[in-house]
Write a structure and sequence with these properties.
elongated, mainly alpha
């Protein structure tokens, strides 16, 4: 029953099936994106190391590994990304550690943390749901997670394109200076 109206069992089953298909597709896209993003993080960290002669605190392996360490994954990947950006700044060489990172890092990380927190709330709500109203509330929170995930995706694209541009510019400048 929804708002006093009875929902037909067939209609509820069709909705469940549709939701399962969408969830399956979302999981596949999420996993593919995560693998590509982690690979990009590894390569970007390796590139940054070469741009500043291996002076980074975090190795390429840990640049990726920190995403999988509970609790630390709330701040370590952000610190890694800031370090990569600082080392990749095309306008800095010797004092690269003193430069600030672009706003793209903060936007990306803020959305990442919000997505994690709301995602966990949504997951707990759906696991504890017993009534139709509980399922509807869980579904609404799930929609918020989806919106935040889209914003996170846009922030990640900004992060990737900015860093790619910076690393290319710095590499070209370094290469031109050594010729």
């Amino acid at each position: 029953m929804v708002d006093g109206a009875i929902v037909a069992e067939g209609e509820a089953d069709a909705n469940d099936e549709r939701q399962l298909i969408i969830f399956g597709a979302a999981i596949v896209v999420y996993l593919m994106t995560a693998i590509l993003f982690l690979r990009w993080t590894y390569v970007s960290s390796r590139n940054a190391r070469s741009l500043v002669d291996d002076k980074l605190e975090y190795s390429p392996g840990w640049a990726v590994g920190w995403f999988f360490v509970p609790i630390a994954n709330f701040w370590k990947p952000y610190q890694v990304m800031i370090e990569i950006f600082k080392a990749s700044n095309p306008n800095m060489d010797d004092d690269w550690e003193e430069v600030s990172s672009p706003a793209a890092t903060s936007r990306w990380w803020t959305m990442w943390v919000i997505a994690i927190i709301i995602g966990r709330v949504s997951s707990r709500m759906s696991m504890r749901a017993k009534t139709l109203d509980d399922f509807l509330a869980s579904s609404q929170v799930s929609l918020v997670v989806d919106v935040v995930s889209v914003i996170l995706g846009i922030a990640a694209i900004s992060l990737v394109t900015t860093l790619q541009t910076w690393q290319t510019e710095k590499y070209e400048r370094i290469s031109a200076a050594t010729v």
